[in-house]
Amino acid sequence: MELGGTGKTTEIYPRVTKKFPELTNDDLAEVYLNGESKWINRIRWVRQNLTAKGEIDSPSRGVWGITDKGRKRVETKESTETVINFFELYEEYETGFRSQLLDKLHELSPRQFEIFSRKLLQAYGFVQVNVTNLSSDGGIDGYGKLRLGLATMNVAFQCKRWQGNIGRPEVDKFRGAIQGEFEQGVFLVTSDFTEQARNVSLKKGAVPIILLNGVSIVNLMMQKGIGVERVPLYLHYERPSDFVEEIE
Q1: Architecture of domain 110-224
Q2: Helix or strand (DSSP H, E) at 43
Q3: What is the phi/psi pair of residue 222, to 5°?
Q4: Residue 57 burial (C-beta neighbours within 10 Å; 0-12, 13-18, 19+)
Q5: Which range is most confident: 73-82, 89-98, 219-228, 234-243?
Q6: Tell me, what DSSP letter sits at residue 164?
Q7: Do 155 and 129 contact (CB within 8 A), yes or no?
Q8: How far apart are CA 49 and CA 200, in angstroms?
Q9: Domain coordinates of the chain in residue numbers?
Q10: What percentage of the chain reaches a pLDDT higher than 90?
């Protein structure tokens, strides 16, 4: 709102950081193995969560904008007394937890990410999943079979623990490596895919490539309990109708 509703990332990141005075220089200096800031990555994660809710959009490349829905939420909070409730706390907690899971994925070595991907695909329903030899993978990091009722489909997968977005050339290259031998491909990345990559992932007459970005992988981890342990929580609240005596 300070920027009038839209702003470039170079303007937004410093302003968001100022909202958290408890952050130390050591916190801000934390980076992944590839040198990218962990704090900036967390901001991007929250932005993606707000985008999914329809409260933020991207009117142009590198620009974030608040939507009418997001503006309404901000104005409502500014005009009323702040009330912290269980649901808000839980939402904040889950957003932070998902961000931590993505951090863990970024900290894996390329080989560790391949092995992790095998476990993830097995939990999804793949069988006979194997990770290829590093020296002779030919652009394929692993392969297995996906059960489809009584039948199975031969599927290959590729994993990239990248920070930058994966473009069309990488998807085309992967498809070329599996064409004729596999019926489907799964491309797993810790970052995301460009729009061009998404547009060519499913092409008529070509092997379909299923794209799983960092957010999708974390969602599967939460659903399948991979690297995650669920603990049930119960919310108790008053039911006023039980305190009112009805007179017939």
Answers
A1: 3-Layer(aba) Sandwich (3.40)
A2: helix 38-52
A3: -65, -40
A4: middle
A5: 219-228
A6: S
A7: no
A8: 25
A9: 6-83, 110-224
A10: 28
